[in-house]
Amino acid sequence: MKDKKLILKILVPVVIVMVIVGIWFIKNTPEKEEIADNQSQTGEENTVEEIQGADFTLKVSEQIDFEALAEYGLPVIADYGSDDCIPCKQMAPVLETMNVEFSGRAFIKFADVWKYQDSAGNVPIQLIPTQVLFHADGTPFVPSDELQQEMEFIMYSDRESGEHVFTVHQGGLSEEQFRRILSEMGVE
Fold first, then answer.
1. Position 8 pLDDT exceeds 80
2. What's residue 23's pLDDT?
3. For the purposes of burial, counting CB atoms within 10 Å of the CB of 61, is it exposed (0-12), middle (13-18) or buried (19 or more)?
4. Distances in Å between the alpha carbon of 170 and those of 31, 34, 49, 84, 93?
5. Per the CB 3.0–4.6 Å rule, which of 26, 114, 141, 173 could disulfide with 177?
């Protein structure tokens, strides 16, 4: 009987420590490994080396450098809103889900334009939330006619050259709408 109690006194703390260590390892898995796993499952063309060093964090406090992001060869959806506006609050969980789901395959960014007013200095924002969309090659997204009928997109052109420079969507997006846009951008 004494041997069983001694074994239990030793075994229980050892098991607890093993569980804690296991949880720590699970929670502290490097993001780069997750990105590599996502790519190997999806068969994306970009190699881990090409996107290594890319910042897939959702929230930004500065202007988004779309040219720098285009160098990674991934599409970009940048949402301009605020943590305090009601439609933006409703869309926040969608942004978080899409950022996690498409990390390594697309850049999903969020700029709080009330906290960081300069963050929208390089894009045409009339109201929030507004999403700015770019293809993987850095060109503005052009939706299909079918998608354009379901969701209204605004195309901005340079006044002098007439060149298409921005495509935006004003208002919130659902997860399904995000997926449809990303699918048209070539992300599966």
1. no
2. 73
3. exposed
4. 31, 32, 35, 17, 18
5. 173
Extract the tokens encoding 22. Answer: 């296991």
Q: Given the structure tokens 């090659």, which residue do they identify?
A: 137
Q: How far, CA to CA in Å, does 177 sit from each of 21, 79, 140?
A: 40, 14, 18
Q: What is the mean pLDDT of the chain?
A: 85
Determine the average pLDDT of the residues in 60-83: 95
Looking at the DSSP bridge assignments, the partners of residue 78 are 109, 132
